[in-house]
DNA sequence: TAGAAGTGGAGGGAATATCTCCAGTTAAGG
DNA sequence: CCTTAACTGGAGATATTCCCTCCACTTCTA
């Protein structure tokens, strides 16, 4: 007699009534897969293959596919909470006394999250990936973001012709600056966010001090050479080391937000 | 006895002593290929396959490969003059009386060229494509650009912490805004260039009027849905029509530069 | 009209990605 | 400790995609 394995998987995934817990070793493997996927998606984006994820996790592909019937299921399992974090961020940013600081806080933290997680950026900016749950969460972000923008405009800090819909494009733009420079300097995107923020203020006398020096000529060439080609896939040596701590662990850190402090 | 066919091709390519002119029909086909490549590279980027170019040109792949021994040769043949045009633009921009206008002129025209030609953007921002000749031309651009930036800074218009190396990144950023929005509105990148330029001025009282309205919520969703997936390759119907006028023909137009006028 | 020049597009070869299958291994429960 | 259901690895089926070659056939040219 056959047990519906998918049902077990799904139930575990959804956290509801579990017909039967996973066998101990299976559970260990499942966690390895999740950890591996989190790390590789963050570093190489959502186009990472399940084969790579399996190899990096130290398990066979079959194991991955039994636990997650499709790539989308895996993405959904991983990113639901991350998108929820963005939603929370948006709501928190509404509680700043200074509406401009709320606006800057939202942008800086959002882009910081995306800078550390290429997969998250792809998920947020595109509609290709992510299933129903992610889609619903994404929709909910719209409202608080509208309010963040309106508040900052009403207070006279944010230029009045800025639109809430510009947020997505601005995010994509800084994301590009990040992808272009990250190979040389991981926090260089902040420089370009300051440029842009100085353009979004309703008025200003001076410029905001920049948190980073510009790239040198050689660094630009390096960035150019690595752009779009920059490690699209893990290389062999990537698989030899065990999974080191994943960057995403830092994401909820209250790390210093340079730009917010400057403003 | 065998004639070195490559030599013929190359000689024709290089415009120097031609051992023998191409047969009439061959010459026609060669031009069809160039025209087709120009159009498809502009629309879909340099990753367009030679198979697609051949099909769109209405010739066989073999014909393409006899004329252009490799994809790189074809790219080089097409883009040498385009990169030269950028170099000319940089030099011209130095002749503006107002250094700020020179700076804006350079950025707006450069990005305008790239917005109409995805292949050109890829060629400029990356080192992957383009052979020796293109590389040399690209290097020559550095000097006048340095001067454009320095002049605008010296005159007190451009913020003093801006670096000439920021130009590449800024170009990439606006390029992303363009790719994100172009499907909905081809000139939307100008909106984001104004945002950014307002951030690059040393000081300002007010904001510059925007040349475009922001996207509507539905338009953002459309853009999201099409981003990165947005027609990566020509579809079947693309090949049925003959080559319509290529966008690149407009590139040297002295079309109205909205932003320059506004400033 | 001979034969050199040119042509189309099938298909070889090399990647890449997703997902299936099953002989063999391992944990859990009696 | 032994049985057996659960689980495992990874080869390989299937399906793409892309670059480029090859050659029987066609077309131009002298």
User: Which geometry of chain A do the CA atoms define?
Assistant: globular
Oligomeric state of the chains in view: homodimer
Rg result of chain A: 21 Å
Distance between the amino and carboxyl termini of chain A: 66 Å
Q: How many DSSP E strands of chain A?
A: 0
Q: Report the helical percentage of chain A.
A: 55-70%
Q: So how many helices of chain A?
A: 13
What structural class do you assign from the helix and strand content of chain A?
mainly alpha
The averaged pLDDT of chain A comes out at 85
Which pair of chains forms the biggest interface, and how many residues does each contribute? A-B, 54 and 54 residues
The name of the CATH architecture of the domain at 70-229 in chain A is: Orthogonal Bundle
Could you explain how this protein is built, in words?
With 263 residues, chain A is an all-alpha fold. The first copy, chain A, has a domain at 70-229: Tetracycline Repressor, domain 2 (Orthogonal Bundle). Helix content of chain A is 63%, strand content 0%. The first copy, chain A, is built from 13 helices and no strands. The first copy, chain A, has helices spanning 5-14, 24-44, 50-57, 61-67, 71-93, 99-116, 118-125, 132-154, 166-181, 189-200, 217-226, 236-240, 258-262. In chain A, helix 6 (99-116) packs across helix 7 and helix 6 packs antiparallel against helix 8. The radius of gyration of chain A is 21 Å and the shape is globular. At the A-B interface, helix 9, helix 10 and helix 11 of A face helix 9, helix 10 and helix 11 of B. The structure holds a DNA duplex (30 and 30 nucleotides).
